[in-house]
Amino acid sequence: EVYFKNLSKQKQKEVMEKNVNNHKLRVCVATCNRADYSKLAPIMFGIKAEPQFFELDVVVLGSHLIDDYGNTYRMIEQDDFDIHTRLHTIVRGEDEAAMVESVGLALVKLPDVLNRLKPDVMIVHGDRFDALALATSAALMNIRILHIEGGEVSGTIDDSIRHAITKLAHYHVCCTRSAEQHLIAMCEDHDRILLAGCPSYDKLLSAKNKDYMSIIRMWLGEDVKTRDYIVALQHPVTTDIKHSIKMFELTLDALISFNKRTLVLFPNVDAGDKEMVRVMRKKGIEHHPNFRAVKHVPFDQFIQLVAHAGCMIGNSSCGVREVGAFGTPVINLGTRQTGRETGENVLHVRDADTQDKILHALQLQFGKQYPCSKIYGDGNAVPRILKFLKSIDLKEPLQKKFCFPPVKDNISQDIDHILETQSALAVDLGGTNLRVAIVSMKGEIVKKYTQLNPKTYEDRLELILKMCVEAAAEAVNVNCRILGVGISTGGRVNPREGIVLHSTKLIQEWSSVDLRTPISDALHLPVWVDNDGNCAALAERKFGHGKGIENFVTLITGTGIGGGIIHQHELIHGSSFCAAELGHIVVSLDGPECLCGSQGCIEAYASGIALQREAKKLHDEDLLLVEGMSMKKEEVVSAAHLIQAAKLGNTKADGILRTAGTALGLGVVNILHTMNPSLVILSGILASHYVNAVKDVINRQALSSVKTVDVVVSNLADPALLGAASLVLDYTTRRIY
């Protein structure tokens, strides 16, 4: 594997050197409308910033040049791009024939332009009929095509156009793992597919902190507040125009009844768009006090509007793709986006055949705030795409190659210049240290960061955010794709809301703390939080002895005693999230006092704190040290000294350890009689010292029907971090919407 990885890097380096020394790559970017320009602009800026590698030619056509749609070519000029050619390719009309004629007109005009430009690569985006004309022209004129956003699935004629462009294209940049797998299943060459993410995410993930109130007021009025307005964007469905017009009427009726300030954008140039505009005017939307109807909003400003909206409604791909990055609620109407991957912020109304259905959806969604989703990108797409472009060898044969079945199953393909691993950011909040790690799908800790855990809430949260941001940035350098953040912390946790209800005494100022919201907002990633004992059980289920076991229990033996219970393959939380507090099983009515305030808990006998307490007592009585042991004057007595003394023959120390092992064993017997698991896993630093004592107690005290249980010591080096990672990895790999 290392050999082939090095070979790939060497090949990429040679290709780049050839391109630098011999030829600048001449790239033609053709943009047809406001939507595709939002995806192409970040790439265009990246190409323009590296003139030593690239020459950029910009061709503008389609609805960019139509006054009814805002003459959006002006925003390209405002971005300081030189437009080489403007092509008027739209044939006015209101039916499907107009689209066909527009494609034909583009095919007539494009050959002359491409003959003059002679680009090495043509970048084509998406699934519009204009893009099909571009791809057809370039393919027939032997120009290499790089297709952006291939492999995705939606519910209209766009699907067929998108896949047709895929078959014409030589190189593919896709946004999601599913899209990558679709391209592979369509027999595209594995080595010419780049999983980069959506280019627009590079811009929008950094946009939310900018001044937005002035933008909101400019488009919606001075009296509008954040989260108290709606953005509506609905297009005709060309395969069922009459139904989509009817649905648009119902949407406007519902918005009028809902009585919130609403920004309505005009639809795309498609068969049926003029009829939709007529519906708007018939209902007086342009003059209604609650509505603002506009032909176009610049993408920078549109980002701010949807990021702070109370809801977005319609059938635009923007709703199911980009808006998820902000956690804004979305109502997706009809079938136009059927098949798209979506975040939990999207509510689908497939059969929006009554006003009441849409109104009810508005009542459900308006004003909510969901976790930010990064299904379609992580903000680093453009650097990957530029690297991909630099690796193109113009001396390679132009003829496409198809990789027919059998197809490699469910693995990320190495395309010479990038090999990314699905990973999670794992956070472990311990009593002493705060640790953050990048953990791969296979349970490998790729990178780990450790800092002392601050004593105050503010400092602790600030340090968590700082470490997570650093780790997320480093993930790009080590070729890891972060799917989310998992947090393991002591105390009682509400995992549904991501809130620490109250913590152990070891972690100060850590009660009623919402961890999910600030971390999700800062990183634009989904965040999961759970108790450290539960995380240890999840780690065993995914990576350890519990893999494939239906019912098992994990006991953590460390500073405290904790655990987690897996029953029928699922983690048990309990009605008030207090299940599996195994350290507080009482094994003696008059035992030592526990930190919880009770007496005789397992933790009061067998935890590291309990052993340290007994070790100090022996030391104070000069009964701890035996021959072969020594302690410095300033050295703090710990549980480790007690264990060392027992090994060297100190009978009192050995007796304390036996008592601790017996207490732990009695607790395990109680668990066996209650849950009847088939496996007990002892985890933590003290596990190996207790395992034999626990087995002895089970043989003496347990019912015969449970004595056959297996008791093993965990083989996981870091169960807290691995468990936090599994919160992310288990969910993101089985997510079904």
TrEMBL record:
Pathway: Amino-sugar metabolism; N-acetylneuraminate biosynthesis. Residues 53-390 form the UDP-N-acetylglucosamine 2-epimerase domain. CDD domains: ASKHA_NBD_ROK_GNE, GTB_UDP-GlcNAc_2-Epimerase. It catalyses: UDP-N-acetyl-alpha-D-glucosamine + H2O = aldehydo-N-acetyl-D-mannosamine + UDP + H(+); an N-acyl-D-mannosamine + ATP = an N-acyl-D-mannosamine 6-phosphate + ADP + H(+). Zn(2+) binds at residues 584, 594, 596, 601. Transmembrane segments: none annotated. The keyword Zinc applies. It is found in: Cytoplasm, Cytosol. NCBIfam families: NeuC_NnaA. In the N-terminal section; belongs to the UDP-N-acetylglucosamine 2-epimerase family. In the C-terminal section; belongs to the ROK (NagC/XylR) family. This is Bifunctional UDP-N-acetylglucosamine 2-epimerase/N-acetylmannosamine kinase. It comes from Chordeiles acutipennis (Lesser nighthawk). The gene is Gne.
